[in-house]
Write a structure and sequence with these properties.
Radius of gyration: 18 Å
Order of helices and strands: HHHH
Number of strands: 0
Largest sheet: none
Helix content: 55-70%
Strand content: under 5%
Shape: elongated
Distance between the termini: 34 Å
């Protein structure tokens, strides 16, 4: 991204980043609430250890401060496209398991899925502003999961929601970095985000 942006482009970027930061904050708050509900409804231990979810990039990265704005946007977009597919699958499994027995959890999942879809679109808008092509979605997202037992499905869902909460934190930090006046190679204070705020 060139430092010599036109004033209108710089203003548009700051506006998109500001709105994106607000979206990420709202999404994280909703995911944290959903995590509490999910753990309770699924009968899980909130401190349960779960394996990394295949197909989802980890929010914690090395040398975060060395990434370009475009790298940040592309990694975020790949992550939220993967989350969109995973949440849609969780919603389908939820309906199969419980039917209408727990419509509240299904509504909360659907609401977060909508926010993830909206955020992915927002990231695409930022990439267009940077005159970058939008990666196609063919073959994008996580691979089809193996057939899991009911308990394994619940644990995978817990892992998805935990990682989504971490991504919401990272996304806000990425967008704050991108919104800085000199977006060429600006170095963020400190090293990679520790994501200590994650639930």
């Amino acid at each position: 991204m060139a430092a010599a942006d036109s004033p209108s482009t710089a203003l548009r970027r700051r506006d998109l980043c500001s709105r994106g930061i607000r979206l990420a904050g709202k999404m994280r708050a909703d995911v944290v609430d959903l995590l509490d509900t999910y753990v309770e409804q699924q009968g899980l231990d909130a401190s349960a250890t779960v394996a990394a979810v295949e197909g989802v990039p980890l929010a914690a990265v090395e040398r975060w401060d060395e990434q370009t704005g475009t790298q940040r946007l592309l990694e975020n977009l790949a992550a939220y496209r993967a989350f969109r597919a995973l949440l849609a699958q969780m919603l389908e499994e939820q309906r199969e398991q419980l039917g209408e027995a727990d419509a509240g959890l299904g509504r909360a999942l659907a609401a977060v899925l909508l926010q993830v879809s909206a955020f992915a679109y927002h990231l695409e808008e930022l990439l267009r502003l940077e005159s970058r092509g939008i990666p196609g979605e063919e073959g994008d997202g996580p691979p089809p999961p193996p057939r899991l037992s009911l308990f394994e499905q619940k644990l995978r869902g817990l892992g998805v929601l935990r990682e989504l909460a971490q991504w919401a934190v990272r996304s806000a930090r990425d967008l704050r970095q991108l919104a800085k006046p000199s977006p060429a190679t600006g170095t963020a204070p400190g090293a990679a985000p520790g994501l200590a705020e994650s639930p």
